[in-house]
Amino acid sequence: MAITDWPASERPREKLIELGAEALSDAELLAIFLRVGVTGKSAVDLARDLLNQFGSLNGIFAATEHELSQVHGIGTSKYVQLQAIFEMSRRALSEQLQQRDVFKSPQQVRDYLVLKLGGLTREVFLVLFLDTQNQLVATEEMFTGTLTQTSVYPREVVKRALHHNAASVIFAHNHPSGIAQQSQADELLTKQLKQALALVDVRVLDHFIVAGNNTLSFSERGIL
């Protein structure tokens, strides 16, 4: 059955107008973006297929053009549009963090990190550089590794902190395994970085592990 044959209250576009975007499921939001389905499948069905294949919205955003094109009804045009939407979302969150104290918007920090790291299949170490007002100055992907390990050099982190005249930093890295749990190596690395940055009077506010849509905060765990 085509979406146009559904009751008006169940159609994603009409539902969004009446109840707001937050009332829609991931599949319904994605269906609005897709606009049309394929033979035998509505846009919502196609959206569900994408979510089942890639696991989540982040998984879809992280997929390559080749991977997405394997799904019937998805081509280069849709890939380009998805990447544009994804990047606009990241930039909007980044702008908000640049305009306010990150301590007053902890969920936005998490949302931003999930958008940056949640769908990656390689391990990336990210540093958020903050000013004296705890506002975001810059975000840099400092190091990239394999699925199992990343080499992080404290000297390079210190150099970038001085370059940005940062008063403090927040670390984040992803676990492509999907498990948001710190390892002994993670704790040791954080300790080494904290000691190195202390020499130039830069504070380490937190270290987040991102695994899909889940995050772990070292600060909240009391292990920073």
Please provide a written account of the structure.
It is a single chain. The protein has 224 residues and is α+β, with helices and mostly antiparallel strands. It is 46% helix and 16% strand. It has helices spanning 12-19, 26-34, 43-54, 57-62, 65-69, 76-98, 106-117, 154-163, 184-198, 218-221; strands at residues 124-130, 136-144, 168-174, 203-211, 214-217. It has a five-stranded mixed β-sheet with strand order 2-1-3-4-5, sandwiched between helices. It is elongated and about 65 Å long. The mean pLDDT is 84.
Main sheet attributes: strand count, strand direction, barrel closure: 5 strands, mixed
H/E series, N to C?
A: HHHHHHHEEHEHEEH
Round the Cα radius of gyration to an integer and report it: 20 Å
Structural class: alpha+beta
Q: What is the tally of helical segments?
A: 10
Query: Uncertain regions: pLDDT < 50 for 5+ in a row?
Result: none
Bin the strand percentage: 15-25%
Identify the overall geometry. Answer: elongated
Number of separate strands: 5
**Mean of residue pLDDT?**
84
In brief:
The protein is an alpha+beta fold. The protein has ten helices and five strands, in the order H-H-H-H-H-H-H-E-E-H-E-H-E-E-H.
